[in-house]
Amino acid sequence: MEEIEGWEPHPTRKNIYKHKNSGLLYRRMKSGWFRKIPQKSIKEYEPMQLEILMKKVASTLGDRLEGLLFQQKNILDNHLNNLMIDHSGRADSITPDEIIGAYEIATIHNGHPSYFLCGWEEFYGE
Fold it and tell me: What are the backbone dihedrals phi and psi of residue 17, each rounded to the nearest 5 degrees, phi first?
């Protein structure tokens, strides 16, 4: 790999460079320009803010949290993390509507397991 001022070549990946000042990864294009590689934001939050978020989620969603599939829990966690990022780590500014929206996104494709059991008594006459 060629040496480029301000850039450090990735040790194992071709055409991948790390910007020396920011530490972010970029792909070197054929034109010679660099394009930033999207990287997942990993953020740590104050324990108090996480406690506020957990209480808000529990009070907003209540029993609906029980019985979620593993994938649905992951989707909900990701959306709650995105909400924390959008609100700069301030859980107290997250509204119940935003929490419900995250829950609906997590359950929209698979549906909550309890949805499949609703009304079965009427169908089978029990």
Answer: -130, 150
